[in-house]
Protein backbone atom coordinates (compact mmCIF):
# COMPACT_ATOMS: atom_id res chain seq x y z
CA UNK A 1 0.00 0.00 0.00
CA UNK A 2 1.84 3.13 -1.16
CA UNK A 3 -0.96 5.65 -0.79
CA UNK A 4 -2.67 6.90 2.39
CA UNK A 5 -6.11 5.43 2.66
CA UNK A 6 -8.03 7.52 0.16
CA UNK A 7 -10.83 5.72 -1.62
CA UNK A 8 -13.93 6.67 -3.59
CA UNK A 9 -15.94 3.94 -1.89
CA UNK A 10 -17.19 3.40 1.63
CA UNK A 11 -15.74 0.40 3.50
CA UNK A 12 -18.95 -1.54 2.91
CA UNK A 13 -21.75 -1.36 0.38
CA UNK A 14 -24.43 0.21 2.48
CA UNK A 15 -26.72 2.26 0.26
CA UNK A 16 -29.82 0.13 0.93
CA UNK A 17 -29.26 0.71 4.63
CA UNK A 18 -28.53 4.35 3.83
CA UNK A 19 -31.97 4.74 2.31
CA UNK A 20 -33.60 3.59 5.54
CA UNK A 21 -31.24 5.60 7.70
CA UNK A 22 -31.83 8.74 5.68
CA UNK A 23 -35.42 8.99 6.80
CA UNK A 24 -34.39 8.98 10.45
CA UNK A 25 -31.55 11.43 9.83
CA UNK A 26 -33.35 13.97 7.65
CA UNK A 27 -35.05 16.70 9.69
CA UNK A 28 -38.77 17.03 9.37
CA UNK A 29 -38.38 20.31 7.48
CA UNK A 30 -36.23 18.76 4.73
CA UNK A 31 -39.17 18.45 2.37
CA UNK A 32 -40.50 21.56 0.64
CA UNK A 33 -43.91 22.94 1.47
CA UNK A 34 -46.96 21.50 -0.26
CA UNK A 35 -47.20 24.57 -2.50
CA UNK A 36 -43.69 23.97 -3.83
CA UNK A 37 -43.82 20.17 -4.00
CA UNK A 38 -44.57 20.13 -7.75
CA UNK A 39 -41.44 22.18 -8.46
CA UNK A 40 -38.99 20.76 -5.93
CA UNK A 41 -38.83 17.02 -5.27
CA UNK A 42 -38.61 16.16 -1.55
CA UNK A 43 -35.11 15.26 -0.48
CA UNK A 44 -36.17 11.80 0.65
CA UNK A 45 -36.82 10.83 -2.96
CA UNK A 46 -33.13 11.10 -3.82
CA UNK A 47 -32.21 8.63 -1.10
CA UNK A 48 -35.09 6.35 -2.08
CA UNK A 49 -33.72 6.34 -5.64
CA UNK A 50 -30.86 4.26 -4.25
CA UNK A 51 -33.08 1.49 -2.95
CA UNK A 52 -31.91 -2.05 -3.62
CA UNK A 53 -35.04 -3.10 -5.51
CA UNK A 54 -35.97 -1.38 -8.78
CA UNK A 55 -39.63 -1.49 -7.78
CA UNK A 56 -38.87 0.66 -4.72
CA UNK A 57 -36.63 3.10 -6.60
CA UNK A 58 -38.79 3.56 -9.71
CA UNK A 59 -41.52 5.76 -8.13
CA UNK A 60 -38.86 8.04 -6.64
CA UNK A 61 -37.05 8.46 -9.95
CA UNK A 62 -40.30 9.14 -11.76
CA UNK A 63 -41.19 11.83 -9.23
CA UNK A 64 -37.73 13.42 -9.51
CA UNK A 65 -37.91 13.40 -13.31
CA UNK A 66 -41.13 15.45 -13.31
CA UNK A 67 -39.34 18.44 -11.77
CA UNK A 68 -35.80 17.70 -12.86
CA UNK A 69 -32.98 20.22 -12.78
CA UNK A 70 -29.51 19.41 -14.09
CA UNK A 71 -28.02 20.72 -10.85
CA UNK A 72 -29.50 17.66 -9.08
CA UNK A 73 -26.92 15.53 -10.92
CA UNK A 74 -24.33 15.98 -8.18
CA UNK A 75 -26.63 14.47 -5.55
CA UNK A 76 -27.20 11.26 -7.52
CA UNK A 77 -23.50 11.02 -8.41
CA UNK A 78 -22.59 11.23 -4.73
CA UNK A 79 -25.16 8.56 -3.87
CA UNK A 80 -23.74 6.30 -6.58
CA UNK A 81 -20.35 6.09 -4.87
CA UNK A 82 -20.98 3.62 -2.04
CA UNK A 83 -23.43 1.30 -3.75
CA UNK A 84 -23.92 -2.02 -5.49
CA UNK A 85 -23.13 -2.13 -9.26
CA UNK A 86 -26.79 -2.61 -10.25
CA UNK A 87 -27.88 0.44 -8.25
CA UNK A 88 -25.06 2.54 -9.66
CA UNK A 89 -26.04 1.52 -13.20
CA UNK A 90 -29.62 2.51 -12.51
CA UNK A 91 -28.66 5.96 -11.27
CA UNK A 92 -26.34 6.66 -14.21
CA UNK A 93 -28.92 5.45 -16.74
CA UNK A 94 -31.37 7.87 -15.18
CA UNK A 95 -28.86 10.73 -15.43
CA UNK A 96 -28.19 9.94 -19.10
CA UNK A 97 -31.92 10.03 -19.86
CA UNK A 98 -32.55 13.26 -17.95
CA UNK A 99 -29.54 15.25 -19.16
CA UNK A 100 -28.82 13.86 -22.60
CA UNK A 101 -25.17 13.46 -21.61
CA UNK A 102 -23.27 10.23 -22.20
CA UNK A 103 -20.60 9.75 -19.56
CA UNK A 104 -21.44 6.16 -18.65
CA UNK A 105 -20.55 5.45 -15.02
CA UNK A 106 -17.64 7.88 -14.91
CA UNK A 107 -18.65 9.89 -11.85
CA UNK A 108 -15.82 12.42 -12.23
CA UNK A 109 -16.88 13.29 -15.79
CA UNK A 110 -20.45 13.75 -14.59
CA UNK A 111 -19.24 16.12 -11.89
CA UNK A 112 -17.07 18.11 -14.27
CA UNK A 113 -20.10 18.53 -16.49
CA UNK A 114 -22.45 19.70 -13.74
CA UNK A 115 -19.82 22.14 -12.42
CA UNK A 116 -20.03 23.93 -15.76
CA UNK A 117 -23.78 24.43 -15.30
CA UNK A 118 -25.34 27.32 -13.35
CA UNK A 119 -25.30 26.61 -9.62
CA UNK A 120 -28.96 26.05 -8.75
CA UNK A 121 -28.83 23.48 -5.94
CA UNK A 122 -31.80 21.78 -4.33
CA UNK A 123 -33.04 24.07 -1.50
CA UNK A 124 -32.21 21.29 0.96
CA UNK A 125 -28.80 20.50 -0.52
CA UNK A 126 -27.04 21.44 2.70
CA UNK A 127 -29.23 18.96 4.55
CA UNK A 128 -28.43 16.34 1.91
CA UNK A 129 -24.71 16.90 2.48
CA UNK A 130 -25.09 16.64 6.24
CA UNK A 131 -27.24 13.52 6.01
CA UNK A 132 -24.99 11.76 3.50
CA UNK A 133 -21.73 12.56 5.26
CA UNK A 134 -23.17 11.56 8.61
CA UNK A 135 -23.38 8.00 7.35
CA UNK A 136 -19.73 8.13 6.25
CA UNK A 137 -18.61 9.63 9.57
CA UNK A 138 -21.02 11.08 12.18
CA UNK A 139 -18.38 13.68 13.07
CA UNK A 140 -18.84 15.33 9.66
CA UNK A 141 -22.28 16.58 10.70
CA UNK A 142 -20.66 19.44 12.62
CA UNK A 143 -19.25 20.86 9.37
CA UNK A 144 -22.75 21.48 7.98
CA UNK A 145 -24.94 22.97 10.72
CA UNK A 146 -28.40 24.28 9.72
CA UNK A 147 -28.34 27.47 7.66
CA UNK A 148 -24.56 27.47 7.58
CA UNK A 149 -22.86 29.80 5.14
CA UNK A 150 -20.78 28.53 2.22
CA UNK A 151 -18.53 30.67 0.05
CA UNK A 152 -17.99 27.84 -2.43
CA UNK A 153 -20.25 25.63 -4.50
CA UNK A 154 -21.27 22.76 -2.26
CA UNK A 155 -21.43 20.40 -5.21
CA UNK A 156 -17.66 20.92 -5.63
CA UNK A 157 -17.08 19.73 -2.07
CA UNK A 158 -16.29 16.02 -2.30
CA UNK A 159 -15.54 13.28 0.14
CA UNK A 160 -11.80 12.65 -0.06
CA UNK A 161 -12.03 8.96 0.81
CA UNK A 162 -11.08 9.24 4.50
CA UNK A 163 -12.91 9.98 7.72
CA UNK A 164 -12.23 12.93 9.99
CA UNK A 165 -8.51 12.89 10.77
CA UNK A 166 -8.35 9.58 8.89
CA UNK A 167 -5.01 10.87 7.62
CA UNK A 168 -3.73 11.74 11.11
CA UNK A 169 -2.04 15.12 11.65
CA UNK A 170 1.27 15.15 13.49
CA UNK A 171 0.78 16.93 16.81
CA UNK A 172 4.03 18.59 17.90
CA UNK A 173 6.07 15.69 16.55
CA UNK A 174 9.43 14.68 17.94
CA UNK A 175 12.36 16.28 16.16
CA UNK A 176 16.06 15.45 16.25
CA UNK A 177 19.35 17.21 15.39
CA UNK A 178 20.59 16.91 11.83
CA UNK A 179 23.50 14.76 13.03
CA UNK A 180 21.08 12.07 14.20
CA UNK A 181 18.98 11.93 11.03
CA UNK A 182 20.79 8.97 9.52
CA UNK A 183 17.58 7.86 7.81
CA UNK A 184 17.86 10.79 5.34
CA UNK A 185 20.01 10.96 2.23
CA UNK A 186 21.19 14.27 0.80
CA UNK A 187 18.91 13.79 -2.23
CA UNK A 188 15.71 13.37 -0.19
CA UNK A 189 13.08 16.11 -0.51
CA UNK A 190 12.36 18.25 2.55
CA UNK A 191 10.29 21.31 3.28
CA UNK A 192 12.55 23.81 5.04
CA UNK A 193 11.19 26.36 7.50
CA UNK A 194 12.95 28.95 9.65
CA UNK A 195 11.08 30.94 12.30
CA UNK A 196 12.70 33.30 14.77
CA UNK A 197 16.08 31.81 13.96
CA UNK A 198 14.94 28.21 14.53
CA UNK A 199 15.32 26.03 11.42
CA UNK A 200 13.46 22.77 10.90
CA UNK A 201 13.14 20.32 8.02
CA UNK A 202 9.97 18.37 7.34
CA UNK A 203 10.78 15.40 5.07
CA UNK A 204 8.23 14.89 2.33
CA UNK A 205 8.46 11.14 2.94
CA UNK A 206 6.97 11.67 6.42
CA UNK A 207 4.62 14.59 5.83
CA UNK A 208 2.95 12.92 2.83
CA UNK A 209 1.47 10.31 5.20
CA UNK A 210 0.03 12.95 7.57
CA UNK A 211 -0.60 16.06 5.43
CA UNK A 212 -0.51 18.30 8.50
CA UNK A 213 1.89 19.09 11.32
CA UNK A 214 0.93 21.15 14.35
CA UNK A 215 4.26 22.41 15.63
CA UNK A 216 6.12 25.16 17.43
CA UNK A 217 9.24 26.96 16.24
CA UNK A 218 10.70 29.53 18.60
CA UNK A 219 7.68 31.09 20.26
CA UNK A 220 5.45 30.63 17.22
CA UNK A 221 2.77 27.96 16.94
CA UNK A 222 2.39 26.85 13.34
CA UNK A 223 0.10 24.69 11.27
CA UNK A 224 1.98 23.21 8.32
CA UNK A 225 -0.46 21.86 5.74
CA UNK A 226 0.71 19.63 2.91
CA UNK A 227 -1.90 18.92 0.26
CA UNK A 228 -0.49 15.89 -1.51
CA UNK A 229 -3.21 16.06 -4.18
CA UNK A 230 -2.18 19.54 -5.35
CA UNK A 231 1.46 19.34 -4.26
CA UNK A 232 1.51 22.34 -1.93
CA UNK A 233 3.09 22.70 1.52
CA UNK A 234 2.11 25.90 3.34
CA UNK A 235 2.98 26.86 6.93
CA UNK A 236 0.53 29.14 8.73
CA UNK A 237 0.67 30.84 12.10
CA UNK A 238 -1.90 29.04 14.23
CA UNK A 239 -3.01 32.23 16.00
CA UNK A 240 -5.49 34.22 13.94
CA UNK A 241 -7.70 37.05 15.11
CA UNK A 242 -6.05 36.86 18.52
CA UNK A 243 -7.11 33.23 19.05
CA UNK A 244 -5.11 30.03 18.77
CA UNK A 245 -6.92 27.60 16.50
CA UNK A 246 -6.24 23.89 16.43
CA UNK A 247 -6.71 22.39 12.99
CA UNK A 248 -7.54 18.91 11.78
CA UNK A 249 -8.27 17.08 8.54
CA UNK A 250 -11.96 17.10 7.62
CA UNK A 251 -11.84 14.23 5.12
CA UNK A 252 -13.37 16.56 2.51
CA UNK A 253 -11.80 18.29 -0.46
CA UNK A 254 -12.67 21.24 -2.69
CA UNK A 255 -11.20 21.38 -6.18
CA UNK A 256 -8.76 18.61 -5.25
CA UNK A 257 -7.48 20.72 -2.36
CA UNK A 258 -7.94 19.45 1.17
CA UNK A 259 -10.31 21.26 3.49
CA UNK A 260 -9.12 21.49 7.07
CA UNK A 261 -11.27 22.44 10.05
CA UNK A 262 -10.65 24.22 13.30
CA UNK A 263 -11.82 22.45 16.44
CA UNK A 264 -12.97 25.70 18.03
CA UNK A 265 -15.71 26.53 15.49
CA UNK A 266 -15.80 23.43 13.21
CA UNK A 267 -15.55 25.75 10.21
CA UNK A 268 -13.99 24.37 7.04
CA UNK A 269 -10.92 26.22 5.75
CA UNK A 270 -9.23 26.22 2.35
CA UNK A 271 -5.66 25.09 2.94
CA UNK A 272 -4.45 26.98 -0.13
CA UNK A 273 -6.25 30.26 0.60
CA UNK A 274 -5.92 30.14 4.40
CA UNK A 275 -9.50 31.34 4.84
CA UNK A 276 -12.70 29.74 6.20
CA UNK A 277 -15.06 28.87 3.35
CA UNK A 278 -17.89 26.91 5.01
CA UNK A 279 -19.38 27.26 8.47
CA UNK A 280 -19.59 29.77 11.29
CA UNK A 281 -16.48 31.70 10.26
CA UNK A 282 -17.14 31.78 6.50
CA UNK A 283 -17.32 35.36 5.32
CA UNK A 284 -15.42 36.68 8.33
CA UNK A 285 -12.26 38.77 7.77
CA UNK A 286 -10.12 35.99 9.27
CA UNK A 287 -7.15 34.92 7.16
CA UNK A 288 -4.26 32.80 8.34
CA UNK A 289 -0.84 34.41 8.08
CA UNK A 290 1.45 32.31 5.91
CA UNK A 291 5.19 31.96 6.38
CA UNK A 292 7.93 31.44 3.78
CA UNK A 293 8.95 27.84 3.18
CA UNK A 294 11.28 26.21 0.68
CA UNK A 295 11.10 22.87 -1.10
CA UNK A 296 14.66 21.63 -1.29
CA UNK A 297 16.98 18.65 -0.76
CA UNK A 298 18.14 17.52 2.64
CA UNK A 299 21.80 17.96 1.78
CA UNK A 300 21.31 21.55 0.62
CA UNK A 301 19.16 22.48 3.62
CA UNK A 302 21.54 20.89 6.11
CA UNK A 303 24.54 22.67 4.58
CA UNK A 304 22.79 26.04 4.81
CA UNK A 305 21.41 25.31 8.31
CA UNK A 306 23.85 23.03 10.20
CA UNK A 307 21.90 23.63 13.42
CA UNK A 308 18.59 22.56 11.89
CA UNK A 309 16.32 20.03 13.52
CA UNK A 310 14.33 17.50 11.50
CA UNK A 311 11.35 15.26 12.15
CA UNK A 312 12.09 11.93 13.78
CA UNK A 313 10.79 8.70 12.29
CA UNK A 314 9.28 8.04 15.71
CA UNK A 315 5.94 9.68 14.93
CA UNK A 316 3.75 7.36 16.98
CA UNK A 317 2.29 5.93 13.76
CA UNK A 318 3.18 2.85 11.72
CA UNK A 319 3.82 3.94 8.13
CA UNK A 320 6.21 3.11 5.32
CA UNK A 321 8.31 6.26 5.62
CA UNK A 322 10.79 5.27 2.92
CA UNK A 323 11.52 7.94 0.32
CA UNK A 324 8.91 8.05 -2.44
CA UNK A 325 6.51 5.47 -1.01
CA UNK A 326 3.51 7.67 -0.13
CA UNK A 327 1.43 8.54 -3.23
CA UNK A 328 4.05 6.90 -5.42
CA UNK A 329 1.66 6.10 -8.26
CA UNK A 330 -0.16 9.42 -8.02
CA UNK A 331 3.04 11.46 -8.26
CA UNK A 332 4.30 9.35 -11.18
CA UNK A 333 1.42 10.10 -13.58
CA UNK A 334 -0.63 13.02 -14.88
CA UNK A 335 -3.85 11.33 -13.73
CA UNK A 336 -5.90 13.15 -11.11
CA UNK A 337 -7.42 11.34 -8.16
CA UNK A 338 -10.24 13.90 -7.97
CA UNK A 339 -11.33 16.05 -10.87
CA UNK A 340 -11.58 19.84 -10.94
CA UNK A 341 -14.01 22.05 -12.82
CA UNK A 342 -11.42 23.68 -15.08
CA UNK A 343 -7.95 22.78 -16.28
CA UNK A 344 -5.47 24.81 -18.30
CA UNK A 345 -3.46 23.01 -20.98
CA UNK A 346 -0.59 25.53 -21.08
CA UNK A 347 1.21 23.16 -18.71
CA UNK A 348 0.71 19.50 -17.89
CA UNK A 349 -1.44 18.75 -14.84
CA UNK A 350 1.35 18.04 -12.37
CA UNK A 351 4.02 20.34 -13.72
CA UNK A 352 5.48 22.05 -10.68
CA UNK A 353 5.08 25.80 -10.48
CA UNK A 354 6.03 28.40 -7.89
CA UNK A 355 2.90 30.19 -6.75
CA UNK A 356 2.87 33.74 -5.40
CA UNK A 357 -0.09 35.86 -4.25
CA UNK A 358 0.23 39.55 -3.41
CA UNK A 359 -2.11 42.46 -2.78
CA UNK A 360 -1.58 45.78 -4.56
CA UNK A 361 -0.55 48.73 -2.43
CA UNK A 362 -4.04 50.22 -2.76
CA UNK A 363 -6.19 49.50 0.30
CA UNK A 364 -8.88 46.91 -0.34
CA UNK A 365 -7.53 45.95 -3.76
CA UNK A 366 -7.91 42.32 -4.83
CA UNK A 367 -5.02 39.92 -4.46
CA UNK A 368 -3.19 38.94 -7.63
CA UNK A 369 -1.82 35.42 -8.19
CA UNK A 370 1.18 34.44 -10.29
CA UNK A 371 2.52 31.02 -11.27
CA UNK A 372 6.06 30.52 -12.57
CA UNK A 373 7.18 27.20 -13.99
CA UNK A 374 9.85 25.60 -11.81
CA UNK A 375 11.62 24.42 -14.96
CA UNK A 376 11.75 28.03 -16.19
CA UNK A 377 13.22 29.22 -12.89
CA UNK A 378 15.90 26.55 -12.89
CA UNK A 379 17.13 27.99 -16.19
CA UNK A 380 17.01 31.53 -14.76
CA UNK A 381 18.48 31.40 -11.24
CA UNK A 382 18.08 35.17 -10.90
CA UNK A 383 14.71 36.23 -12.23
CA UNK A 384 13.08 39.63 -11.80
CA UNK A 385 9.34 40.17 -12.24
CA UNK A 386 6.48 42.43 -11.21
CA UNK A 387 3.29 41.47 -9.38
CA UNK A 388 0.56 43.74 -8.02
CA UNK A 389 2.89 46.73 -8.19
CA UNK A 390 5.71 44.97 -6.31
CA UNK A 391 9.14 44.37 -7.81
CA UNK A 392 10.26 40.82 -7.03
CA UNK A 393 13.38 38.76 -7.51
CA UNK A 394 13.20 34.96 -7.49
CA UNK A 395 16.47 33.25 -6.60
CA UNK A 396 16.85 29.57 -7.48
CA UNK A 397 19.76 27.50 -6.19
CA UNK A 398 21.58 24.82 -8.15
CA UNK A 399 19.48 22.27 -6.26
CA UNK A 400 16.27 23.94 -7.50
CA UNK A 401 15.17 25.66 -4.27
CA UNK A 402 13.20 28.86 -4.91
CA UNK A 403 13.05 31.93 -2.66
CA UNK A 404 11.28 35.19 -3.50
CA UNK A 405 12.25 38.65 -2.26
CA UNK A 406 10.80 42.13 -2.57
CA UNK A 407 13.70 43.96 -4.13
CA UNK A 408 12.29 47.32 -5.22
CA UNK A 409 14.70 49.15 -7.53
CA UNK A 410 17.61 46.85 -6.75
CA UNK A 411 18.66 44.63 -9.61
CA UNK A 412 20.64 41.45 -9.21
CA UNK A 413 22.85 39.65 -11.71
CA UNK A 414 24.38 36.48 -10.29
CA UNK A 415 23.72 33.97 -7.55
CA UNK A 416 26.96 32.57 -6.14
CA UNK A 417 27.43 29.05 -4.78
CA UNK A 418 27.85 30.33 -1.23
CA UNK A 419 24.31 31.79 -1.19
CA UNK A 420 25.45 35.31 -1.91
CA UNK A 421 23.94 37.31 -4.74
CA UNK A 422 25.64 40.07 -6.71
CA UNK A 423 23.72 43.23 -7.60
CA UNK A 424 24.08 45.37 -10.73
CA UNK A 425 26.73 47.47 -9.02
CA UNK A 426 28.89 44.47 -8.18
CA UNK A 427 28.02 44.55 -4.48
CA UNK A 428 27.13 41.36 -2.65
CA UNK A 429 24.13 40.43 -0.53
CA UNK A 430 23.67 37.41 1.70
CA UNK A 431 20.60 35.27 1.05
CA UNK A 432 18.88 34.19 4.28
CA UNK A 433 15.49 32.66 5.05
CA UNK A 434 14.23 36.09 6.15
CA UNK A 435 15.66 38.33 3.46
CA UNK A 436 18.59 39.59 1.42
CA UNK A 437 21.11 41.34 3.65
CA UNK A 438 23.53 43.88 2.21
CA UNK A 439 27.10 42.94 3.12
CA UNK A 440 28.08 46.59 2.73
CA UNK A 441 25.30 47.78 5.06
CA UNK A 442 23.87 44.92 7.17
CA UNK A 443 21.03 47.16 8.36
CA UNK A 444 19.64 47.08 4.85
CA UNK A 445 17.41 44.05 4.35
CA UNK A 446 15.16 43.23 1.41
CA UNK A 447 12.35 41.04 2.82
CA UNK A 448 11.50 37.55 1.71
CA UNK A 449 7.86 36.79 0.93
CA UNK A 450 5.91 33.51 1.01
CA UNK A 451 5.82 31.47 -2.19
CA UNK A 452 4.90 27.82 -2.62
CA UNK A 453 5.46 24.94 -4.99
CA UNK A 454 2.26 23.49 -6.40
CA UNK A 455 1.02 21.29 -9.20
CA UNK A 456 -0.20 23.49 -12.03
CA UNK A 457 -3.70 21.95 -12.13
CA UNK A 458 -4.21 22.52 -8.39
CA UNK A 459 -3.02 26.12 -8.49
CA UNK A 460 -5.17 26.93 -11.52
CA UNK A 461 -8.22 25.29 -9.94
CA UNK A 462 -8.00 27.70 -6.99
CA UNK A 463 -6.75 30.71 -8.96
CA UNK A 464 -8.23 30.49 -12.49
CA UNK A 465 -7.36 34.19 -13.00
CA UNK A 466 -3.65 33.54 -12.35
CA UNK A 467 -0.91 34.86 -14.59
CA UNK A 468 1.61 32.30 -15.81
CA UNK A 469 5.28 32.57 -16.70
CA UNK A 470 6.64 29.42 -18.33
Outline the structure in words:
This protein is of the alpha+beta class. It has 3 domains: 15-136, no CATH class; 170-330, no CATH class; 344-469, Rieske Iron-sulfur Protein (3-layer Sandwich). 22% of the residues lie in helices and 28% in strands. It has 12 helices and 28 strands. An 8-stranded antiparallel beta sheet has the order 19-20-21-26-25-24-23-22. Residues 8-14 and 28-37 have low confidence and may be disordered.
SSE map:
Layout: H1 15-25, H2 43-48, H3 54-66, H4 73-80, H5 85-99, H6 107-115, H7 125-136, E1 157-159, E2 170-171, E3 175-177, E4 189-195, E5 198-203, H8 204-207, E6 212-217, E7 220-227, E8 232-237, E9 239-240, E10 243-244, E11 247-254, E12 257-262, E13 268-270, E14 275-278, E15 294-297, H9 298-304, E16 309-311, H10 328-332, E17 352-358, E18 368-373, H11 374-379, E19 382-387, E20 390-396, E21 402-406, E22 412-415, E23 420-423, E24 428-431, E25 435-438, E26 445-449, E27 452-455, H12 456-462, E28 467-469
Parallel strand pairs: 2-6, 5-16, 18-28
Antiparallel strand pairs: 1-11, 3-16, 4-5, 4-15, 6-7, 7-8, 9-10, 11-12, 12-13, 13-14, 17-18, 17-27, 19-20, 20-21, 21-26, 22-23, 23-24, 24-25, 25-26
